[in-house]
Design brief:
Oligomer: single chain
Shape: globular
CATH superfamily of the largest domain: Nucleotide-binding domain of ferredoxin-NADP reductase (FNR) module
Structural class: alpha/beta
Strand content: 25-35%
Radius of gyration: 18 Å
CATH topology of the largest domain: Rossmann fold
Helix content: 10-25%
Number of strands: 16
Strand order of the largest sheet: 4-3-7-1-2-6-5
Length: 267
């Protein structure tokens, strides 16, 4: 874990309300793993006081392969992200990371389904890129991306560019792809050919439906929880998640997650 002052490399509009930001970072981020996150805050002023959590979308590398920065995707939803949207190249930010528990990768070639809802796509490119670097056949990986409308669909072309052949698109209002929730085509695909693992990130209803489906078909499923965090290091206990099995046992998204085995938590 590294706390440092970093600089904005770029901050571009991805689509309505969504931004892609590149940051400088310490070279030790070469050890970062997909599913991990960073805590980020604008340096000047005290509003907001607390850092905000963002998944690592990808690492920025030099032509020689050295890590020179990292990239996040974010949606403007409040004061913290509004201030990020105003940042320009060279502005300073306070960065803490890499944090959290990452996705566990298969130990051997596997059929992988990747499901993302809205900004939940943020950690999934890093995951896909890492699978490729580990020697997995990315062309057989199936990606499912869902959003409320076409304005909430991100990174489709990024997945195609890295070598993914199948990207299924759904929108709640039918403005792009199939009019359905993202779990609809996932379940149809499962019936046609059961995957070895499902990775998912997105809003809670989507994760709940994905976890139930995985349990019904006995498929290993890892989910990345989207939640607010006060500290990111397990001190404030503000990101509690109920553990499976009932009772009063809780896990915390910042240290026990944000990636969990779906069977380990009560959604």
């Amino acid at each position: 874990m590294i706390q440092e002052r970093v600089q904005v490399r770029y901050n571009t509009i991805e689509c309505s309300g969504y931004y892609r930001m590149g940051l400088t970072c310490h070279s030790d981020y070469r050890r970062a793993k997909p599913g991990q996150f960073v805590m980020l805050r604008v340096v000047d002023g005290m509003n907001p006081l607390l850092r905000r959590p963002f998944s690592i979308h990808r690492l920025i590398r030099s032509s020689a392969g050295a890590v020179e920065g990292l990239e996040i995707l974010y949606k403007v939803v409040g004061t913290g992200t509004e201030r990020l949207a105003d940042c320009r190249r060279g502005d300073g930010l306070n960065l803490l990371g890499p944090l959290g528990r990452p996705f566990s990768l298969p130990e051997r070639p596997a059929q992988v389904f990747i499901a993302a809802g809205g900004i939940g796509v943020a950690p999934m490119y890093f995951l896909t890129e890492t699978l490729q670097k580990k020697g997995f056949d990315i062309s057989s990986c199936v990606v499912f991306i869902g959003g409320r409308s076409k304005d909430d669909l991100l990174c489709m072309n990024d997945f195609f560019a890295i070598g993914v052949k199948t990207v299924n698109i759904t929108t709640d209002d039918g403005t792009a792809g199939e009019q359905d929730v993202v779990t609809g085509p996932i379940e149809r695909a499962v019936k046609e050919g059961r995957p070895d693992v499902i990775y998912a990130c997105g809003p809670l209803p989507m994760l709940r439906a994905t976890a139930r489906m995985a349990r019904r078909y006995d498929i290993p499923c890892q989910i990345s929880i989207e939640t607010m965090m006060g500290c990111g290091i397990g001190a404030c206990l503000g990101c509690a998640v109920s553990a499976a099995g009932g009772g009063d046992k809780y896990l915390h998204a910042c240290v026990d997650g944000p990636v969990f085995n779906a069977a380990d938590i009560d959604l």
